[in-house]
């Protein structure tokens, strides 16, 4: 049995390495009887004659950086607008320049040396489970449906992995880094120990891979849209602001900033990333509910 496992592992390793060496060829990706759109022609031109794994990793990294820091920028601006202070969840706590630069430099190191390699390895793994990498691009209803499923999967995974990181040595040695900021601000979302970055990142990666393997095919471009959507959500959750137009005010099951801000402030409860229902089902939001009732009640009285 052990010999069979070794043979299977060796075969998978060889297949993975072969996929890592694949060179882009538009004739292989665009059916002969299909007229590609401008977007499709542009997309495949990036890969033509180049190592596909490396090109996809670079594209994914650019998308990641653009949406991560682009999503954060409005909150950064708000920090310098006095009239926005009334929307701060913890207005008594200010981020110092030293804290900001420490966070930013640590983030860049993590994004380049931890996340970028994971992105480089994704396309070969995706091909091995049958991802669709060819034309045509998927229809928008299918993309939206799949991204919604990925959100649910990631949220469930994140809930339990996050709870584990609050246990004993996992918190002390790993998760405590993320909790250096008791009043989070946008880019704190990915400020974490490298092990935490890798482990929690599997919730974002594994959902599409498993969905493709067991349910239906996922297009590789859907993965980029999912990454952008996930970044949009996590930066908002760490933004430190509760605006009247925030999603949590018109989508009750959306966790939002107030939900996760409490977790940073109190170091307990509210372990989910995107939705409120897991904390509600498993009873890890009762203290937050009491705190939120007091906070919003006080805000209304003022």
UniProtKB/TrEMBL annotation:
GO terms for biological process: lipid biosynthetic process. Pfam families: FA_hydroxylase. Its main location: membrane. It comes from the Eukaryota. The keyword Membrane applies. This is C-4 sterol methyl oxidase. Residues 148-284 form the Fatty acid hydroxylase domain. Its EC number is 1.14.18.9. InterPro entries: Fatty_acid_hydroxylase (IPR006694), Sterol_Desaturase_Related (IPR050307). The keyword Transmembrane helix applies. It comes from Coemansia erecta.
């Amino acid at each position: 049995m052990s010999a069979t496992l070794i043979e299977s592992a060796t075969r998978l390793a060889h297949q993975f390495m072969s996929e890592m060496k694949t060179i882009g060829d538009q004739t292989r990706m665009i059916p002969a009887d299909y007229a590609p759109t401008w977007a499709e022609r542009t997309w495949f031109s990036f890969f033509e004659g180049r190592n596909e794994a490396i090109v996809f990793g670079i594209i994914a990294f650019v998308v990641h950086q653009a949406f991560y820091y682009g999503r954060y920028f409005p909150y950064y601006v708000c920090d310098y607008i006095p009239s926005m202070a009334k929307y701060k969840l913890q207005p008594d706590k200010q981020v110092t320049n030293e804290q900001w630069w420490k966070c930013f430099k640590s983030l860049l190191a993590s994004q380049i040396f931890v996340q970028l390699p994971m992105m480089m390895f994704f396309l070969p793994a995706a091909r091995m489970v049958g991802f669709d990498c060819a034309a045509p691009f998927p229809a928008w209803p299918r993309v939206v449906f799949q991204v919604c499923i990925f959100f649910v999967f990631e949220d469930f995974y994140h809930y339990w992995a996050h709870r584990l990181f609050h246990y004993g040595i996992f918190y002390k040695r790993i998760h405590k880094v993320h909790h250096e900021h008791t009043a989070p601000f946008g880019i704190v979302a990915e400020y974490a120990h490298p092990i935490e970055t890798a482990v929690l990142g599997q919730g974002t990666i594994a959902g599409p891979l498993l969905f493709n393997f067991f349910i239906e095919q996922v297009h590789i471009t859907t993965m980029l849209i999912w990454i952008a959507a996930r970044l949009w959500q996590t930066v908002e959750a760490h933004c430190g602001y509760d605006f009247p137009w925030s999603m949590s005010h018109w989508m009750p099951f959306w966790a939002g900033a107030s939900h996760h801000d409490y977790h940073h402030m109190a170091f307990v409860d509210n372990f989910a990333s995107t939705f409120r229902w897991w904390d509600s089902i498993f009873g890890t939001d009762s203290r937050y509910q009491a705190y939120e009732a007091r906070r919003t009640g006080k805000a209304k009285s003022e």
